[in-house]
Amino acid sequence: MVQKAKILLVDDRPENLLALEAILSALDQTLVRASSGEEALKALLTEDFAVILLDVQMPGMDGFETAAHIKRRERTRDIPIIFLTAINHGPHHTFRGYAAGAVDYISKPFDPWVLRAKVSVFVDLHMKNLQLREQALLLRRELDGGHPPADAERGAGGLLPELSARLAAVEEQAEVLTKELTESGGASAAVSTAAHLERKLSGLRRALDALQPGASEPRSVESQPG
C-alpha cells in the first residue's frame, strides 16, 4: 500500500479550509486542517508534512510569525511553505513572505489548477525523498551487517541488484521531475530541492557501485600501507 503524503492547511476561516480541501482532494493525499498558527505548530510536533499552505491574515499569530516558528525548528525547517493571502500590499509584503521562508506566495482568489499543480510538485518531491530514505536504510543495514548471512546468495547476489533496480527507478523519476520543473519555469526553491535530491541519489549510486562484486578490491588495495 502506497503511503500518502500529508498536506497541512492553515486558515482561521472554515470556508477557506473547505475550499482548499475541495481543490486538493484530487491529489488523493492526506489533508490536515489547522485553524490557527498555534494549532499548526502543535500538528507539526508529531506529524511529517510534504507542504504547508499557510494563510497570512490570521488573528493572534499571523502567517509570518507562524512561518518564523516553523523555520526555527530543526524538525520542520525544510518543509515547503506556500503563503496564501487575500490582500496585496505590494512588493514589500511579498518580500516579507519570502523572507519568512515561503517557497511561493499566492494571492486570493487563486486559480485552483495552478494551486493544485504547485502543491503536486512538492508532494512529488516529498515522496521521492521518502523513497530515497528507504533505499538508504536498506543499504545501511546491508553495510552494518558486515559479511552476508547464511543465505549468502540472497545477501550478495540478490539484495544489491534489487537495491540497484529500485534506485534506478527513483533516479529516473527524479530526472523527469527536474526536467519538468526546469522546462515549466518552476519556482527556484522547487528546482533547487529537486537538484539536491538528484545529488543525494548520485551519492547513493556511487556507494552501491562500490559494493558490487569486484568493485571493493581495488579500493582496499589502494588503502593498504606501502
UniProtKB/TrEMBL annotation:
Q: Tell me where in this chain the Response regulatory domain is found.
A: 6-123
User: Where in the sequence is 4-aspartylphosphate found?
Assistant: D55
- Name the UniProt key words of this record, in alphabetical order: Phosphoprotein
Q: Does the keyword Phosphoprotein apply?
A: yes
One Pfam short name: Response_reg
- State the InterPro entries in the record: Bact_response_regulator, CheY-like_superfamily, Sig_transdc_resp-reg_receiver
The answer to whether keyword Phosphoprotein applies is yes
Return the protein name.
Response regulator
